[in-house]
Design goal:
Strand content: 15-25%
Order of helices and strands: EEEHHEEHHHHHEHEEHHEEHHHHHE
CATH architecture of the largest domain: 2-Layer Sandwich
CATH superfamily of the largest domain: Metalloenzyme, LuxS/M16 peptidase-like
CATH class of the largest domain: Alpha Beta
Number of helices: 15
Helix content: 40-55%
Structural class: alpha+beta
Shape: globular
Number of domains: 2
Length: 435
């Protein structure tokens, strides 16, 4: 990306800097190469829980006081835990960014894990999981994911299993923090109104003396090849039925990932890097499922992941329709895209929408800084720079090729959410069920 410079401090901290002087704002991110994919059974959800503890503060920066200080200075801060990373950021007026630099350097080493705060946060996180369980798509998604991945850490939800949330200890959390929160396991990014030489000098002053540790040997178990279709059924009180198909998909570094992204745009409409979207009413699956009144909505998602993950298709079944009918209609469209080329008009539209969404999704310094850190984590920050060019290189033949390669029944996990007090099928053919 034009204007990005990459530096590695003596202690191993990777630093990416991009000057952008359009407004007097700077976004500062620190991303750690640790996420839920690296969690062992018994400690699922530990990365997310540690993220919560990082806001409890240090001796130098007590949590509650820091929150007020950032707000008072006109800034914002937050964090996120993913399958592949845990990241923290502050977006501040440019003349106040030093607070962000100092606090992230301090809590890289000095976060307190007090017993009473661990106990308090256990209640918060369990409540968070219980809140997610109010959604039928949480239950269905968890079952599909668990069936699709038997060995790999992608098997479990980021928030963790309830049994682990109830039993993990303060030492479990603190040891996770000490093993993974170190400069040589981190990526720091600044985007905004600063001078590169001055910013790099200040980063070296604050972070250069933090000792590197023994680089963690991240826990990852390769997922075996899927040998046939898997099916799961969730039956819970609700009024709406849902269908999910998860196809095993390539990692984001694979050229096929970009081909699948164009295929998804044709099938369900495009989605942007920053979560933006464009109306999908002209997409194939909208016309086949929603306009025919089989489904209320249909959507697709292709995660940007370090290891091969899933290409997900989800349909919300219309009241009075059956899961069987929706699945049959969806299969018809998937067979069509495998057996026939998409049109040049569809391809051109997908390229055009990708450019528009990319521009919209990355116009803020906060989102630019995030995507630089994110791409550097699984590949290189240049992945972000090359994103549109690689999408535009996808051809009609490429789309049909990946449809045939990945959208096979043998490569998918099919999930039904059957409401126990509403619509949906009362029957289930368990042929091929591996649960």
């Amino acid at each position: 990306m034009a204007g990005v410079t990459r530096h590695v401090l003596n202690n191993g901290l990777t630093v990416l800097l991009k000057e952008q002087h359009s407004s007097p704002v700077i976004s500062w991110w620190v991303l750690y190469r640790i996420g839920s994919r690296n969690e062992r059974t018994g400690q699922t959800g530990v990365s997310h829980w540690v993220e919560h503890m990082m806001f409890k503060g240090t001796e130098q920066f007590p949590g509650g006081e820091l929150d007020k200080a950032i707000s008072r200075l006109g800034g914002s801060w937050n964090a996120q835990t993913s399958m592949d990373y845990t990241a923290y950021y502050e977006t501040m007026p440019a003349d106040q960014i030093d607070l962000a630099l100092r606090l992230e350097a301090d809590r890289m080493m000095n976060t307190r894990f007090l017993e009473d705060e661990v106990a308090s946060e256990r209640t918060v996180i369990i409540s968070e999981r219980q809140g997610a369980e109010n959604s039928p798509m949480f239950w269905l998604g968890e079952e599909v994911r668990a069936a699709a991945f038997r060995v790999h850490g992608y098997h479990h939800e980021i928030i963790g299993d309830m049994s682990d949330l109830e039993t993990m200890t303060r030492d479990d959390l603190y040891n996770h923090y000490r093993r993974h929160y170190m400069p040589n396991n981190a990526i720091a990014v600044a985007v905004g109104d600063f001078k590169t030489e001055e910013m790099l000098k200040r980063i070296e002053e604050l972070y250069g003396s933090i000792p590197s540790g023994e680089k963690p040997n991240l826990f990852v178990r390769p997922e075996p090849e899927q040998m046939g279709e898997r099916r799961v059924v969730v039956e819970r009180p609700h009024n709406t039925a849902f269908l999910e198909m998860g196809f095993r998909a390539p990692a984001a570094t694979d050229d096929d990932w970009f081909k699948l992204a164009i295929l998804n745009s044709v099938l369900t409409g495009p989605s942007g890097l920053g979560g933006g979207s464009i109306d999908n009413k002209t997409s194939r699956l909208y016309k086949a499922l929603v306009e025919t009144e089989l489904a209320v909505d249909v959507d697709g998602s292709l995660m940007t992941s370090i290891d091969p993950y899933l290409y997900d298709l989800v349909a919300v079944v219309r009241d009075g329709q059956s899961l069987e009918a929706v699945e049959a209609a969806l299969n018809e469209q998937l067979e069509r895209v495998q057996n026939e080329n998409i049109t040049q008009k569809e391809l051109d539209k997908a390229h055009k929408q990708a450019r528009a969404l990319f521009a919209y999704s990355t116009e803020r310094v906060t989102s630019q800084a995030f995507w630089l850190a994110f791409a550097e984590n699984f590949d290189s920050y240049t992945w972000f720079d090359q994103y549109i060019a690689r999408l535009e290189a996808v051809t009609i033949e490429d789309v049909r090729e990946v449809a045939q390669k990945y959208l096979r029944p043998q490569n998918r996990t099919v999930g039904w959410f059957v409401p126990t007090n509403g619509n949906g099928s009362d029957e289930y053919d368990d042929e091929g069920d591996e649960e």
